[in-house]
Amino acid sequence: MEDDVAARKPIRPLAGPGDDVGAADLGRRVAENLRQRRKARGMSLDDLARSSGVSRAALSQIETCKSNPTVSVLWKVAVGLGVPFAELIGAPRSGAMVLRRNDAQVLRSADGKLESRPLAPAGASPLVELYELRLGARSTHASEAHAPGTHELLVVLSGQLKMHVDGETYELGAGDSVAFAADRPHTYENPVGSEARYHNIIVYER
Fold it and tell me: What CATH number is attached to the domain comprising 23?
């Protein structure tokens, strides 16, 4: 039930009306990429629901462009399909790839407290992804385990970070970084009264 609600929750508008077009375009890309990769693996919606933990109804809504999924739901779907996260939001292109700042589609958590903006073109590398994260004041975001062998490296750009992994808490300030195995649940926490910004590098197992 939670995934149904999360998948139906629309992405909030950003700076202007053009972002509504960007959100719609993202929804279409995700729908097409999800459908292609699911069928290429011979998976039904029920199969993917079992492997991802996202309900069949929510997956159907995504594939038919009737909802814009949250970043948490997309991570679950990527893990269920066994593909890098970026494969769901874009497609590789030949030659040099450029991502303009204004073209990068921001993804948000269901509660709107975490924003994730890609810093590299989708499909630029099958092994590495780079994002800018913004976490609201005194907010936490719990992340599901990623695909086996996945690692993350976080660099604090501004503010503070409490990174919770395997029952351990790592406290970081601006300029500090932490690397950890992300194939287990982990939680980002901003303990102070102002927004924090981080760079998040995700590395997949070869």
Answer: 1.10.260.40
Residue 31: domain span: 2-88
CA angle centred on 178, ends 177 and 184, rounded to 5°? 150
14/80 same-domain check? yes
Bridge partners of 179, per DSSP, are: 153
* Range among 74-78, 86-90, 187-191 rated most confident: 187-191
What's the pLDDT score for residue 94? 54
Please state the pTM of the whole predicted model: 0.63
Last residue of a domain, one of 88, 114, 136: 88
Q: Counting Cβ atoms within 10 Å, is residue 161 exposed (0-12), middle (13-18) or buried (19+)?
A: buried
Q: Is residue 12 part of a domain?
A: yes
Q: What are phi and psi of 152, to 5 degrees?
A: -125, 145
Is 22:105 a contact under the CB 8 Å cutoff? yes
Q: Note the pLDDT tens digit of each residue in 151-196.
A: 999 999 999 999 999 999 999 999 999 999 999 999 999 999 999 9
Please give the C-alpha separations between residue 110 and each of 123, 141, 170, in angstroms, as whole numbers. Answer: 25, 10, 25
Give CA separation, 73 vs 109, 132, 206, in Å: 9, 19, 24
Q: Are 82 and 34 in contact (CB under 8 A)?
A: no
| 95: in domain | no
Q: How many domains does the chain have?
A: 2
Position 161 in a domain: yes
Separation of alpha carbons 5 and 8, rounded Å = 5
